[in-house]
Structure formats: structure tokens, C-alpha cells
Amino acid sequence: LSALSSRAGSIASLHDRIMFSPGSEEAIERLKETEKIIAELNETWEEKLRRTEAIRMEREALLAEMGVAIREDG
């Protein structure tokens, strides 16, 4: 966890330097992807479970709107 914290600090510093560099759109995209990965790594198991359950319920609701029935066992 300490390694992730120091990595996040390094990314913040890199982010500041990249924002002022000309022609750095690709670097900014890579930085955004890295920030997203770090956020996912810092997410707790319970948060991941809640997010997954919300996605499942949304998917089931959309399928029900289309008239597709879903069995209880999957």
C-alpha cells in the first residue's frame, strides 16, 4: 500500500510536468489510464462487489425491458 501511495505522488508530479509540455496528448492519455488503474487498485473488495452488483442489476433491468427472462441460477 505504501508503494501505491508513493506511486500516486510520482504520478501527480508527472501530471503537473506533462500538462505544460507541448504536444503531450498521448502522454496525458497514458497518465489518465495509469490514474484509473491506481484508483481501481485502491478500491476495496466491498466497493468492487457493490459496483459489480449495480452493473448486474442494470443489465438485468435492460434485458427485462427487451423481454428477455433471466433464470435465478444464472
TrEMBL record:
<protein>
    <submittedName>
        <fullName>Kinesin family member 1A</fullName>
    </submittedName>
</protein>
<feature type="coiled-coil region">
    <location>
        <begin position="24"/>
        <end position="51"/>
    </location>
</feature>
<feature type="domain" description="Kinesin-associated">
    <location>
        <begin position="2"/>
        <end position="74"/>
    </location>
</feature>
<dbReference type="InterPro" id="IPR032405">
    <property type="entry name" value="Kinesin_assoc"/>
</dbReference>
<keyword id="KW-0175">Coiled coil</keyword>
<dbReference type="Pfam" id="PF16183">
    <property type="entry name" value="Kinesin_assoc"/>
</dbReference>
